[in-house]
Design a protein that fits this description.
Elements (H helix, E strand, L loop, with lengths): L1 H22 L14 H23 L4 H18 L1 H4 L3 H13 L3
Helix pairs in contact: 1-2, 2-3, 3-5
Keywords: Membrane, Transmembrane, Transmembrane helix
Length: 106
């Protein structure tokens, strides 16, 4: 279960990189129909870093992954709402991530 969670969240984190790549025109992302500002692109990168950092803390057994994970979800969801037409399905992994973080409080 631990490995599956880590893989799932790593993939979700990597998807955040698409917003950064689109904003800085480092890749032609056909799935994003609307332009992404450079400022938003930086936040997509920050969200990626937070998700990956939370996964690494989780794998290391450090409980700080919970707070970092919730911060990542918050930023991610704000970005998703701002790009709803292109990114709405990112809400699903955010909900799953939040549930798993809430279960970690046991």
């Amino acid at each position: 279960m631990k490995t599956a969670f880590a893989i799932f969240m790593t993939i979700h984190g990597l998807i955040h990189l698409l917003g950064f790549l689109k904003a800085f025109q480092l890749a032609d992302i056909k799935d994003f129909k609307r332009p992404i500002s450079r400022q938003a692109g930086i936040f997509w990168m920050i969200s990626f870093i937070l998700v990956i950092s939370a996964v690494n803390l989780y794998l290391a057994g450090n409980s700080y992954y919970i707070g970092l994970g919730f911060t990542a979800i918050l930023i991610s969801q704000v970005l998703i709402i701002g790009a709803w037409e292109d990114a709405k399905y990112g809400t699903i992994p955010n909900i799953i991530f939040a549930i798993l973080l809430l279960l970690s409080f046991q």
